[in-house]
Amino acid sequence: MPSFYSNPTLFEEIVMKQILHIDSSLFSDKGVSSTLAGDYVAGLMERDPELRVVHRDLGRDPVPHLDAIRLGAISTPEAGRTPEQARIAEEAEAMIREIQEADLLVVGVPMYNFGIPSVLKSWFDHVARAGVTFRYTAEGPEGLLEGKRAVIVTSRGGLHRGQPTDTQTGYLTTILGFVGITDVEFVYAEGLNLGEEARASALDSAKKDIERLLAA
């Protein structure tokens, strides 16, 4: 289940700004991408304490991978769902509501075997839904989550930015654009496994990029 952190007195008030913070490290809040993404969100909250943040830690509470049973539950009309199908469908609906209500999406993304974590792919599989977050038109697909921003904080053991091995940047830009989020910023922490000096340099560079975003 998602967790909420902000001023609890704001939950019953009109929320003017909302962040959806997604972490996908297997190490949960101990992962580098999670730590850096958390630093960025904390900086935003320090600047504006009235922000509401919805947090999903997919390492701690993974979203089940989409399979025939889950797809069938989501696709079945509400009136015809079994209790189990209703539970599955509500899980998916909750994820969609969270991104619909958010003004900013912040995602911590480590690189595993040249790709994004499978739990993050699963989250996207549940959030990208025809007729809800995108639709098909005569001119092609149209994203329905326009007017939002996204900040992606990536951590990599090696150096991949701008190389064919960086499958993350292209995929994340494409899937976010597909649902209508085209204002996307990336923060890279690369070379983390290339020695202590390289790791320190990577973390310093990422922190400076986060400071730049916070100052914008």
UniProtKB/TrEMBL annotation:
Q: Which UniProt keywords apply?
A: Flavoprotein, FMN, NAD, Oxidoreductase
Which InterPro entries does the UniProt entry name for this protein? Answer: Flavodoxin_fold (IPR003680), Flavoprotein-like_sf (IPR029039), FMN-dep_NADH:Q_OxRdtase_AzoR1 (IPR050104), NADH:quinone_OxRdtase_FMN_depd (IPR023048)
Q: Which cofactor does it need?
A: FMN
Name the residues that bind FMN.
S25, M111, Y112, N113, F114, S155, R156, G157, G158
Q: Which SUPFAM superfamilies match?
A: Flavoproteins
Residue ranges of domain Flavodoxin-like fold in the record: 17-212
EC numbers listed for it are 1.6.5.-, 1.7.1.17
Top-rank taxon: Bacteria
Is Oxidoreductase set as a keyword in this record? yes
Q: Report if keyword DNA damage is assigned.
A: no
What Gene Ontology molecular function terms does this protein carry?
Answer: electron transfer activity; FMN binding; oxidoreductase activity, acting on NAD(P)H as acceptor; oxidoreductase activity, acting on NAD(P)H, quinone or similar compound as acceptor
The similarity comment for this entry is:
Belongs to the azoreductase type 1 family.
How does the annotation summarize its subunit structure? Homodimer.
Function of the molecule: Also exhibits azoreductase activity. Catalyzes the reductive cleavage of the azo bond in aromatic azo compounds to the corresponding amines.
Task: Specify the protein name.
Answer: FMN dependent NADH:quinone oxidoreductase
